[in-house]
Amino acid sequence: VNTSQMVNKPKSLRRGAQLVVRWVPDWHLYVLLVGVLAWTAVSAPGLFWSLSNLSSIGFQMPELGLLTLAVALTLISGGINLATVATANFAGFLMAFLLKAGFVRDFGDVTACAYYLLVLFCGMGTGALVGLLNGVIIAFLGVSPILATLGTMTLLTGIGLLYARGVAVSGLPSGLVEAITGSILWVPVPLILFLATALVIGFVLTRTRLGLTLYMLGSNQRATSYSGIDTKRVLIIVYVISGALSGLAGFVMMCRFNSVNSNYGSSYLLVSVLAAVLGGVDPFGGRGRVTSICVALILLQCISSLMNLMSWSSHLTLATWGILLLIGLRFARR
Amino acid sequence: MLFMFENFRKRRGAPTGDQIRLAGLLVMVMGLSLFSRHFLTVRNLFDILSSAAVLGILATGLLIVLIAGEIDISFAAITTVAQYVAALITIDFGGNWLTMFAVALLIAVGLEMLNALLVHYLRAMSIIVTIATMNVFYGLLNFFSNGQWLYDFPDWFSDGIGFGLRFPGGAFAQFNLAIIGLIVFWVLGGIMLTKLVIGRRLYAVGGSKESAHHVGFSILGTRLFAFGAMGVASGVAAIVHAQLVQTVAPNALVGMELEVLTAVVLGGASLVGGVGTFRGMICGVAFIALIRNGLTLLKIDSYYHTLLLGMLILGSVTGSSLGDVARRRTLRL
């Protein structure tokens, strides 16, 4: 009697597990997240689950998150954008220049707000222009994306260095900085920006023609081209969007650091690729979901915050992130 | 097959990539020697050689990895780990050149082999795997070392090894460890890539893993060899760099990976694998070394260096790809 029960139980468990694996994409991320959250509950429950810590996680995530989305889109299309951080800093320099140009001094609040928005659009537009350059080089000249974006990265860093002479540009209007580094109903403003962007990108990827074409392009460029799609146009659009997202990241970074420099966030470059791939984006192209990327980002930030609370070295965080990516690669669907 | 294609191209008169690179290099050398009288001196040439030694050694390793169809981002981290551990052991327990090189090579080759195994068994892209391992290596090194610098080297290490050579005209050339290491490494690497079977095998596997596998080449073996060679380069570069700067810092080589990648790519290696020549790589390294040296001699603000390097990369990459398009058109491929 007992034996049949003992056999039955694992069987149903296994079936349940199979269902989860089949129907929950990137299930290993959720397992890892639950594991990390359990770890926080054991080792630092009061500290980790406090409002201040959660909001600091919310402040740290958006910069890396926006850069990760920027690089993830190009990864899905089968390429890569190594110029994201450089684009962000380049756009940051331009925005800082516009903000310091002194147009807003004598304006009222409403006009100042409008001007800040205009500056943000200029920054994203600059990013989009850089993306256009990348896209044209990649689509029309057939240069490999790594090389093209490596070149623009070096070029933009060089221009930034030349413009600021290696010194950080500071002295931004305090109203803007306070607004962006503040919170609305305990939710950090950068987090709201990031979530809105992620929603839009998720919508584009799953519900529009462009998104579908993007996945097709990443899976097989030649077949996509033969099925009557202008692949060059789509490639350029991808890099333009990626550049605009980098510009937005530059805006958030500028406000968070209260200054701009050409070497800010240089460690984000490879970490954003790490986060994207951990979030189930296939580096060969053709696969990737915004939800999984967000879960991966939360996972990475939770680990970072936990290590910080237990006053372990931030270098150990980096090492853990690397190991996590290796584990993620082991479970990634292919 | 490859050689037939090259002959065909030569007969049609279109210059190969290496010929263009060599011509560009010559133009640069002539221009620099016109504008600076210090440039074409034996002393300056040896300064260039010794300051480009680390770049040149690492570029050779990366070229081998790229030809085999892989890419490595973690070698700068591995070089730093090898350098740090070798220096620590030498300072704490003493030793000599042999033990120091042995420790550095052992660590570097071991960690690169780990890369190769991970790439092979996780069936993942090597760029992703090595980004992960780079973070692991750097993170653990900084964690265990607390970011501490090492500089209390024994005398034999500070003195270095080498010999001077007096030329008939009275010029004096100092062959130090960096230059000797670079020359030995380039000779061995060049012979390996162009004359030995294993070199051809790297091109075959890099060109098409599928076909190479069907012909009977071991993919794992080739990967282990390519990453192992990168490990040897990292180990040698580690000691050369430590001897050159006389300090070992856990963050001394951060960002070096992209610079070396730039040099190798300027030299014509493709990231798809199977393409790239030893001569081209040397030209690429020389480009970067000459730009650094030349701009300094011409007293051009160092803030321009990165900008000019970026323009050079974009120019050469788009130029070579335009050349490919044109060549395909003339060959009707």
Structure described in brief:
By secondary structure, chain A is an all-alpha fold.
Q: How does the overall form of chain A come out from the CA principal axes?
A: globular
Helices of chain B, by number, come to 15
How many H/I helical runs of chain A?
15
Largest sheet of chain B: 2 strands, antiparallel
Oligomer description: heterodimer
Low-confidence stretches of chain B: 1-11
Provide the succession of SSEs of chain B.
Answer: HHHHHHHHEEHHHHHHH
Helicity range of chain B: over 70%
Radius of gyration over C-alpha positions of chain B, nearest whole angstrom: 21 Å
Task: Identify the biggest protein-protein contact and residues per side.
Answer: A-B, 46 and 48 residues
- Structural class assignment of chain B: mainly alpha
Query: How big is the Rg of chain A?
Result: 22 Å
Question: How would you describe the overall organization of this protein?
Answer:
The complex is a heterodimer of chains A (334) and B (333). Chain A has 334 residues and is mainly alpha-helical. Chain A is built from 15 helices and four strands. Chain A has a two-stranded antiparallel ribbon with strand order 1-4. A two-stranded antiparallel ribbon of chain A has the order 2-3. In chain A, helix 9 (189-207) packs across helix 10 (209-219). The longest helix of chain A has 33 residues, at 109-141. Chain A is globular, with a radius of gyration of 22 Å. With 333 residues, chain B is mainly α. In chain B, 74% of the residues lie in helices and 3% in strands. Chain B contains 15 helices and two strands. In chain B, strands 1-2 form a two-stranded antiparallel sheet. In chain B, helix 2 runs parallel beside helix 14 and helix 6 (97-122) packs antiparallel against helix 12 (219-245). The longest helix of chain B has 29 residues, at 303-331. The radius of gyration of chain B is 21 Å and the shape is globular. At the A-B interface, helix 7, helix 13 and helix 15 of A face helix 7, helix 13 and helix 15 of B.
